[in-house]
Amino acid sequence: MDAESFEIKAYPEMWKDLGMDVERFDKMRLMLGEIYGKTYLTQKNRPDRMVYFDGMIAELHGGRVKELLAAKAEGRPVIGTFCVYIPEEVVIAAGGICVGLCGGSQGSIPDAEKILPRNICPMVKSAFGFKVGRVCPYIQVVDFVYGETTCDAKKKTWEILDTMVPTYVMEIPQMKKESDRKMWLHEVKEFKAKIEELSGKEVTVDELTKAVKVMNDKRRALQRLNTLRHAKPTPISGKDVLLIEQIAFYDEPVRFAAEVNELCDELETRIAAGEAVPSKDAVRIMVAGVPMALPNWKLHHLVESAGAVIVNEESCIGTRYYKDLMAEDGQDMETILTDLTTRYMNIDCSCFTPNDERIDQVLKEFRESQADGIIHYSLQFCHTYNIEEIRIREACAREGIPYMFIESDYSPEDIGQIQTRVEAFLEQIRD
Amino acid sequence: MFVGVDLGSRAIKLAAWQGGKLVDFKIKESGFEPHRQVQEMIQEYEPCSVVATGYGRHLVKEYFSYEVITEIKAHSLGVHALLPEATTVVDIGGQDSKVISLGDRGQVVNFQMNDKCAAGTGRFLEIMATSLAYSLREFGPAALASDREVQINSMCTVFAESEVISLKNRGVPRQHIARAVHASVADRILSMLNRVGYGDTIAFSGGVANNPCIVEMVRRRLDNVQVIVPDNPSIIGALGASIEAARQDVKA
User: What is the ipTM metric for this complex?
Assistant: First the structure.
């Protein structure tokens, strides 16, 4: 596939059946295809196995959606998500599918701002705008949207979104005390009942154990990928790994894990041959902070265009999604659900207080990834990450780690300034 | 000959460096096709090696494959060459403001840059001066001469302008409003200085360093800190770029 001719495939008939704004969506499709071509397919020395993930983007608006429609026709539930707190194992055990919804694009924000306040997180606005503008096929397909209470903008937006698409909200605790763990276990049980009701299928110990294995395998594949990219020199660009981490949220998990493992085999060969992307002496940057939802490639593109390489994403679309596995040998439902609760409570989202684990985790990933510096990336109006940034900054100062903080949104207007800051940060590391 | 060019949002600056010192400089308002302007400005120094900085750096890199460095590195090099005692640089240009903490070799240790709006920049002062019917040259001295400080609360250029208009319409004398505008920029710089840390000697650079009121207000807000302004502060970025050209020559 080359940059010029790359195109995301069109499925106008299917979009029409899904009640979408076909004309507008088609323009967005062309634009995204062009951006993808320029951002991704102009990269030099990409691993061959990236072809599968390029294909996932080419089929972003069709192929995968068709699979979801086929699953629905068989009576399998399809759940739209925006957060790593969704207990995916429970959904899979009921034969269901989780799909991460669109929320990373500037294009849908004007739609959202017709209703929502302007001064809230761009991810929430973008996601909401996709429904308002009818320009995301995935949100048109889902049985319900899984919402959670990880931030104020989200939890209040769910109330409005619920009038357009059924939105099920799970309460995520804000602390990690024993009472919070009990509450979360209770929430998981209620969610299981909801899924069983929707699918008309009981979640058995057997099915749940299989689902745990599926998710662990997927997470293990991503862990393997992340460990391999930590090699020095790194065998794969940060942009490519970010793309895979983004695709992880909408691809079929078993197929996805197999493809990631195939890619990892290739990366092992590359490492043995000493192949470097982009060059042996490229400055290595670790990114920490908020998730970068597809197609938010803004920071990675700027950093890698300046000759550096990103070697880690400490983020929900990154290690926070796959760093923790769960026990696979639970004998009864109560034990498995308790293990599951424990696994999810290990996620160190900034919505928790205190959240010291995250500070330690950032430092740990910095060492493991052999990075030269950290860029903390936050979205505008994301209060919890923006404030927790202070603690990360202090920790980096203590450890002598070169550090920079970037707060941005999805608009292109600050690209000049961010480019200057990124380049100056790289100069600072090199000098 | 080593030439540094700084393609800023308001002006293009050139500095010529030879035998370890600044031998010439030029400042030209930036028009269209800044790369053509640069080409013309450089002509008389040929043959020379050129390093570019400023917002237009990538444009001239594309056309003439000059080496480029960021304004942050350029101002650090320029200030360190002229004022080696400086521990911190405050660079306020037309489009952005930066505070840079320097190491003992003049290298960048840490820096802060304003967010994606005109708040606290030369552009902000320019818009406010226009709104109060001052020329840029008069604006700083007029504010400095005022003995009363009213408050402007908004740092957003658009909202601050409406505050200025409402103060005007309450009959507040314009020099007091001018003073308030300068105070709001000085406060902004102070908060950036506090984030980065500033040592004992702060050097101003960039076009806004020509405004005596901003410099004085920052000076008054700090205890036991020397605040200095080099001659021709607008060309410090270009100077730093010319020094980088000389350094790269040594490395090569």
Answer: 0.90
